[in-house]
Structure formats: C-alpha cells, structure tokens
Amino acid sequence: MAPRYAPSLRSRLAPLLLLLQLVFILIYGFYTEVKSNVKVRGDNFFCFYPNLQDVTVMVFLGFGFLYSFPVRYGFSGSGFNFLVAVMATQLAVILNGIESWYYSGKIIIDLKSIVVDEMCAVSALISIGIVMGKTNPVHLILIAMLEVSGFVLNKWLLRTLLRVQLPNSIMQLHIFGTLFGLVLTWMLYRTESERQFEKEKSDCKMGLFSMLGSICLWIFWPSFNSALVKDGALGRKLQAVCSTYLALAVSAVTAAAVSVLSSPRGKLNLIHMQSCILAGGVAVGVSMTAVRQPWEAMAIGFTAAIVSTIGVRYLKIHMLLAFQCHDTCAVLSTHGLPSLLGWVAHLLLQLKDCADHTMAIRFTVFHICTLLLTIALSLSMGIITGLLVKSNFWRPPQDKKCFDDQAYWEFPHLAVRK
Amino acid sequence: MAPRYAPSLRSRLAPLLLLLQLVFILIYGFYTEVKSNVKVRGDNFFCFYPNLQDVTVMVFLGFGFLYSFPVRYGFSGSGFNFLVAVMATQLAVILNGIESWYYSGKIIIDLKSIVVDEMCAVSALISIGIVMGKTNPVHLILIAMLEVSGFVLNKWLLRTLLRVQLPNSIMQLHIFGTLFGLVLTWMLYRTESERQFEKEKSDCKMGLFSMLGSICLWIFWPSFNSALVKDGALGRKLQAVCSTYLALAVSAVTAAAVSVLSSPRGKLNLIHMQSCILAGGVAVGVSMTAVRQPWEAMAIGFTAAIVSTIGVRYLKIHMLLAFQCHDTCAVLSTHGLPSLLGWVAHLLLQLKDCADHTMAIRFTVFHICTLLLTIALSLSMGIITGLLVKSNFWRPPQDKKCFDDQAYWEFPHLAVRK
Amino acid sequence: MAPRYAPSLRSRLAPLLLLLQLVFILIYGFYTEVKSNVKVRGDNFFCFYPNLQDVTVMVFLGFGFLYSFPVRYGFSGSGFNFLVAVMATQLAVILNGIESWYYSGKIIIDLKSIVVDEMCAVSALISIGIVMGKTNPVHLILIAMLEVSGFVLNKWLLRTLLRVQLPNSIMQLHIFGTLFGLVLTWMLYRTESERQFEKEKSDCKMGLFSMLGSICLWIFWPSFNSALVKDGALGRKLQAVCSTYLALAVSAVTAAAVSVLSSPRGKLNLIHMQSCILAGGVAVGVSMTAVRQPWEAMAIGFTAAIVSTIGVRYLKIHMLLAFQCHDTCAVLSTHGLPSLLGWVAHLLLQLKDCADHTMAIRFTVFHICTLLLTIALSLSMGIITGLLVKSNFWRPPQDKKCFDDQAYWEFPHLAVRK
C-alpha cells in the first residue's frame, strides 16, 4: 500500500469493536434484566416512550448531522457519531447499573435508564465534537469509552459525596464533556492546525445538512432538559419545557443579532445560526431546577447567546493561537461557556431565594464544590485519555488526510465491482 | 464597500432584532406566567406534549426546508424561516394573551397556548413564502410582526363579533396568510420578476432538501389539524386525524396524476409533488369541524389536489403576467385555493345537515361574513404593511442579488480567518 | 418526440392513478367508517397516536430517503416511494377490512388499523427496493398493488389456517416482500445489469440523504416492532422496545466491524452502515414474541449483522452473476436473510422453553408450515406479477435511462417558462 494512503485500520478498528461488543453481550447476558414489574398505573410506558424517542433523535440524528459540516467529512461526521453514540450508550448502561448490580445482583433496564445512558453518551459526543476530523474512529471510540467512564464516576461522586440530585448532576455533562475534550485536543495538538486544515470548511449543501441536525437538536431540546424532571411533580415538567423553549427562542434571535453586529459586512454566519441558537438550551438545562419565571429563562438565553456567539467569532481562533487548542465544532463556546453561565445563574437564583445568610454561604460553597470536583475529574480523565490516545499504535491520520472521508470510507465510485 | 455588494444590514437587522427581543423579555418579565395549577388528572402534559412537538417540527423543520428549494437560497430559506418563526411565536404569545391579561393581569403560558401561538406563526410563514427571495430579513421580520398582529386581531374579531369557535377561526390562517402575502407581493412588484430571476430555480440536491421539508409537513399535518380539537370529545380528535390522513393520501395520488397529465412529455414535476400533496390537508383543515365521513375527506382532498396542481402549473405564471403578483412558493395554489375550497366544502356539508330552511340561510350568511371579514382585514393589513415595507430605508436587495445567499450570509470559504 | 427520450408515461401513469384513486374513494364512500365508539378510558388515542406517527415517519421519510442513494435517482427514490406507500396503504385499508366488512358491513378505520395497513405497505416497499431504478412508476404501482394483495392473503391464511397471531403473521412481511421482489427481478432480468448500470452509484451528498433515511428507520424501529404488541400486557411492550433497541445497537457496531474486516484496505462502506445496522431490528422483529432476555436480542442482532454485512459484500454480486437477480438495495441481505435468521431464532427459543418432546416437534412442524406457506405464496404471487408486468405495454425504461430521474421528472432548468 502506497504511503500516500491513510494507514489501514483493519487490524485496529475491527478487533476493538468486536472485542468490546462481545464483552458487552457477555456482561448483559449475565447481569441485566428488562424491568418486568411495571407499575399498576399502566400508562407509564406511553408517557415516557415519546420522551425517549426525542432524546434518541437528538443523539443519533441531531449530533450526527450537526457534526457533518466539513465539506468532505459528511460520512465520517454522521457515521462515526452514530458508532460512538451506540458504543457509549451500551457502556453507560453497564456503568450506570453497577450500583443496582451491587445491591440486587441485576442491572435493571427500563426506558428511564436508557434516557440517562443516552445522556452520558451525549457527554461523550460533546468531547468528540472537539477532536472530530483530526482523529480516526479508533481514537474516537477509546475517547468515548473513557469519557463515559469518567462522567459516570463524576455523577456518582457528586451524588454520594455531595448529595447532588440526578437532574443536577447529569446536567454537568456539558461542562465535563467540554473540559475533557479541550485537554485532549491540547495534548493531541498538531502544527497543521494553526494554518487551518485545507478541508475544514463547509459548503452550501453540507451547511444545510448541518442545519438539519441543528434544528433537530433545537426542536427536541425541551424534551432533553425535562426528561429527568420527576414525573410526580407535573408542574415542574411543564415549567422545564416552557423555560427551555423560551430560552431557545431568545437565544436564536440574539445569536442572529450578534452575528450580524460582529460581522464587518453585516452578514449572518451559518455556524452561529447552528451552534449558538442552542446556547440558551444548554444554559437553562444546567440551571433548570432553580428557574421559576419565564423572564429568568429568557434572560439566561439572551446572555448565553451573546457569550456563545462572541465566543465562536473571536475566542475559537485565540484558543488555537494562544493555547494550541483546536476546537473543531466550537464546543467551548457552544456548550462550555453557556453551561458555566448556567451554573452561575443557578447559584444566583438560589441565593435570591435564600432567606438566611448562613444558608446562602453554605449553598455557595456546596455549589462551588460540585463545579470544582467536575473540573478536576474531567481534566485528569482528559490527561489520562490523552496519554493513551497519543500513541502511534492507533495510527493517527496524516495531516493532509484530516477532515477527509476518503481515509476511512470506501468511495462509491471505487466500490463498483464486477 | 463596492456598490456591487448587497447593502449591509448591520445597522438595520441587528438593532431591530435586539430591540424587539428586549421588549419581549420585558413584557414577559412583567406579565407572563407558566401555568402552575395543573389539573388533577395528571397525564394532560403527556397527552399534549407530543402534539406540540409535531407542530414545532412542522414550523421549524417542515416550512424551513420546503422554502429552501432555490439553488442558491438554502441558507436563507431555512435560516430566515427559523428566525421569522421564532419572532412570530414570541409576539403571538403576547398578543394572544392580551385578553387573559386584561381579565386576570397575567398571560398564562401552557402547552396548548404555545400550539395556538405557533399556528399564528404558520400564518406568517405562509405570507413569507410569497415574498421569499425578493426581500431581505428585515422585511421578513417586519412583515411577520404585522401579519401576526393582523391575524390575531382577525381571530379575535371572528370570535367576539361572530362567535366563531377557536378551531374554525384559527384555520382561517391559510386564507389570511395567502391574501396578506399576495397584496404585499403586488405592492413590492419589481420589473425583474417578469423574466424570471436568474437564481430562482432548484437543482437536484436542493430539490431533495425541499422534499424533506414537504414530507415532514405531510406526515405531521394530522397533528396540526387535530391539535385544537377539544380533548374531551376523543372521537372528534380521532376523526380529525383520520380525515386529514385520508385527504392527504388522496391528494398525493391526485397531484401526481394531474402533474403527469398536464405535462406535455408526461413527466412528474417535483414542485407539484412537494406543494400539492399538502392541498388536501389544507382543505380538510378549514372544513374539519363539518367532515364526518371518510369519503367526504377524500373527495375534498381529491378536488383540492386538482385545483392546486392546475394552479401551480398555469395560474402562477398568469398571476405574474396579468396581476404583477410574483408568488415565489406558489402559495396561492398551495394554501389559498385549497383553503377557499375547504371553506366552500364546510358550507356545503353544514347545509346538508341543516333540516331547516331558515337555519340554512342564516348559516350561509354567517359563513360568508366570516370569510368577508377575513378577506377585508387581510387585504387592509397587507396594504398597510406594503406601504411600510416599500421604503428604501430597509435596504431592499438589488434585482441580481435576489434569491442569493451571498447577500446575507458569510460564506464558508470567506470565513476562514487567521 | 425523439427516440432518445424515455417513453412518455402520460397515457399510462395518469389514468392508472386516477382510476385506482376514484375506485378507492367509491369503496371508502360505501363501506368505511371511522371508529366512533372510543373506549371509556380515553387516553387510548394519546397512547397510540405517537406510535402511528413513528411508523409513518419510517414509511414515508425513512424508506424514501434510504432508497434515494443513486446519484441521479433522488427525486424518483423519494417520490416514487412516497406514491407507492400512499397507494399501498389505501389498498391495505380495504383488503384488511374485508373480514370486518363481511361480518358487520363496515370497514372500521382507527389508529391501530392504519398501523397494520402501513405495515402491509412496508412489505410492498421492501419489494420495490429490489426492482427500484430498473422499472417505471407504473410498474412500481402495479407491483405494490399485487404485493399488498398477496401479503394480506398470506396474513389471512396464516391466521385462519394455522392460527398464527397477528404480531407473528405480520412480521413475515420481510420474508414475503423479499422473496416476492427476488422472483420479480429475476423475471425482469436485463442483460445490462451484469455490467453495472452506469448511474447506479452514489455520491457524497446522496449518501448523506440515504444516511438520513437509514437513521430515521433505525431510531423508530423499536416503535415498528412493538406497535402491535398488545396494550394490555405493558411489560411485553417494554420488552419489545428494549429488545429491538439493544439488537439494533449491537448490529450497528457489528456491521461496522465486519465492514472494515472484509474490506481489503480496512475501510468502512457506507452501504453497510445504512443497510446492515437495521438487520438486528429485522431479525428481532420476526422472533420478538419469543425473546425474553436482553442477551438473546443482542446475540440475534450480532448474528444478523454479520450475515447481513457479508451478504451485502459478497452475496449481492453472486446473486446477479449466478442467478440473474439484480437486487438494487441489497434487500436480500438486509431484510431476507436477517428475517430468516429471526425465524430460526424464534424456533430455537420456543423449543428451549418447551418442556415436552411431542410439543416441541409439533411446534417445529407448525413453525415450518408458516414459513413454507409464506414462501409458496410469495413465489407464486411474484411469478404472476412478473408475467403481468413484463409486457411492453407498460413502457419499461431503456437500459441507459435506468436510475435516471430525467426519464420521469421535469427538470428545474427545463421548467422555467415565460
């Protein structure tokens, strides 16, 4: 095979996938069980199943097409995202079930647990978005496996050490995924990044595919944010949906305005219209349990969109030049900053409600601890993963084959056989 | 800036968006509230939320991709549709809530009210479809704001003056939107339109994106028509869904047949397959409350598709040449004529059920009044909007930049910065 | 008209469509009724409607875009699929209702019956996938009409002769559709097939549209498999959803691994990632009523994906060369083999549960009979259809116009009129 081709992944990708899959099947065979004792009030299934479907659409369709914007990276963007999501969800089922396995000997699978698992996969997909294009699928799967492990560990620590509730702890997925990915991309830095990769641009049609993914995410984000809000308190679920809806609406308008304002020729930028319209959903998701009034959600959406749009416009390039962090999908500005903003908003809204001074200080300390724990764990997991993934054993793509489907996909005109 | 570029919208679009958005946030801050006292029988949320999602998919995904058929107008088609829909929905929340604000001091937001608001936004999107491509985003937003105001006023007048029920009054959205848009396009007439704009054609890939939008609309149209049918009368909701489903199915087949029949070479036309397959849904939507039997829905769908397909094939070009109305998305034939047909069908079906002669005449007069009121209001609102929008202050695009993304969007290959 | 053009379908397609549609409307007018006596416990509608929507998305969006992969066949792929699905569903409503008409004089339409009808349409769509591109729309509609008739007959025979339950009998749709289509393509064999049709390849953008369809199918497959599982036994419905979900996940990973392993250069193949990821869903669907444990579903998914991927890679070309069966969408490997595998798995799982030896033999004989009946009926219906469709009366496309939209669609740049 001539050296101008990308190195073959046959001896790496296939064994890795088959091995992991067989291990998963074995573990599932011995330890899992589909929940059989369904509650008496039978419509539980019908209430939750559409919610699961919405999240599934976001994970497989939304992120997949959002990530397929580079002009020659459409197959990889959607295909690898799909593969990573499927692997990460399967792993998350096991890891999230360890506790229940420890107590009852069985990992129980039901619709709600699948939603939680898919959310862990979303955390991995966020990290993937940062290193997309500069890595091969073997890297992506290893990264996803370690990210999910780290995130589940973080969730568990937050729950057991600090007694953070599930909806709050899982919403840290944006912060965890972003920091994990940033450390990783910093460790995998390649000089090529500084003058843009030649194929890292979009074109007219790929932009529309990416827009499709983005709109799917936008539409179903209220389901994502409200999925884990307890069913009993129905008013809370409605609140979560409406808050997210309003925040998303406001951030769409604001992102467009800031995009035009910050453009020298007064033009819109499609990347802003794809990524930054979601900023409101991210920020409200993190602060959701404290948001009571529509205007609070809207104000959070407004600020998040401004921060996010300015971040995509100016911060992305500075992160590259100053810190050698090449962030393919501008995840720092799309998920990272809005989720930090949401964290701050959560703190402020809680403090506003605190009658007592001591209480307020206590809550602040507690809230800062959750953030610090998440940051510490994500950074250390990122460094470990980086060290593992850096090895040439995994056959990283050459610089000129970055963002190129041809390195990994048989192309249709080559696939004709007689 | 060289004059060959489209005029910059920086000083128009950004302030308009930010101003409107901040005003919205202020109004929401003082006067809105998410419904907190949810009914005892708790599954209300789970019943209605999927319905809301379906309508949201239609508004943001369906219309967005349907409108992105011109070969170089994909970003604008989907992006501006998105922006307009978000703004129009936010405005509709306020306007629809005025009555409740007047009586109780608060605008109550719940899932059903959001559906009603999105339907008002659909009315604006229908108008937008007529002037798409020949206007800039500032125009589109102003048009949407005024259209929504007019439509909500019309709905209120129908309800208070003529006691038309909500499902009936809101289904006038097709008639209102079409006439409003037609008056507008007539006032904004430009000589270029007569020999087609050079970029107002589709190509193979854009046609598929447009097909995607159209199929999304087709699939979820039953949810749209049945959304406001009262929950109590469950049989009615099922009836509405089945009627719409059958009418859509029949109109898809009929549109294809008429398209082939009216083509000199016996070929199908993709535009017909995209627009006219929806005609049945429009017509049945307007006449829904009177449709009882499956065959009635099917006959309505059959006639609507014939009218619509012939309209797109022959009427569109005559509207342009004879009346100087350039109708980008053939909205007159897709929404206007089928909804008039639905209005007639509603009248006939009601008369058929009337035992009494006086009753029948009364109903006829009443039914004609609702139509005349809608027409009068839509025409006058259209004229007012046209006068406002015609000004050069809003920097209309040059003729040769019509239907061109480059006038409004930073293009990916230009966006590379170092 | 110059002979280099494809023959006009004006005098064939339009009358056929109009005639069938009018006959349908007449039959519906006399014999159908929307179910009016809805059960007391009213949320039936809300439980089932999202399920219907999921299946509708699969039928119209999923299959439509999956079939639009050939580079110049996008309009036809999605458009003809749409047309065929609409016609087949309408016919299935009538045929499935004959029994109820015989007893009560009316065909009752409700949400569940529409799902059953759409599943019959899926059976036709599977057959269509085999002959796509080499036939014209008139062929496709005739084929669909006969396929649906045969499939409904088969379902009825299985139910009345062998007392096979509805969920089991309808899941034979994969086997019936595949064999019917294979016989047909063998009878319609054309020499051109042996050296590939020039336009039967995909390209980068069309591959993504096809990926979109495939992901839609993948996401909603659990709804498809669980739709007919009885509502009463809620645990069974949850089981069906989880089994399908796991099988799909495993088959996605396995398909990717086998695709890389079987490629000389260690690359993935997009066709495998589109078709073979669904194999698990097909296989589990057929064996669903016997699958109890998660690992059983996963093992079935694993095997199905291996069989399917190897089939697409090696079997497709041998079927063509050895048996003169040109299988456009590799339906044999995607639906045929996995469903046979599912049939075997069903048998084995049932035998495992049988305590009694006689019982086991009885069940085996019964199970083999259902398969043989399905095979016999599908082959004979396929031969009858082939004889009918082979006639030149239906104006088959020339070899060089195969897989070409231009034979059937007015092209946008030709559609400009002044």
From TrEMBL, chains A, B, C:
Pfam family, one: Ammonium_transp
InterPro entries listed in its UniProt record: Ammonium/urea_transptr (IPR029020), NH4_transpt_AmtB-like_dom (IPR024041), RhesusRHD (IPR002229)
GO cellular component: plasma membrane
Domain Ammonium transporter AmtB-like: 17-390
GO MF term list: ammonium channel activity
Membrane topology of the entry: Multi-pass membrane protein
Transmembrane segments: 12-31, 51-70, 82-102, 170-188, 208-224, 244-263, 270-291, 297-315, 365-389
Top-level taxon: Eukaryota
Gene Ontology biological process terms, A to Z: ammonium homeostasis
Localization annotation: Membrane
Keyword Transmembrane annotated: yes
Function text: Functions as an ammonia transporter. May play a role in the elimination of ammonia in the gill.
Homology family: Belongs to the ammonium transporter (TC 2.A.49) family. Rh subfamily.
Full protein name: Rh blood group, D antigen isoform X1
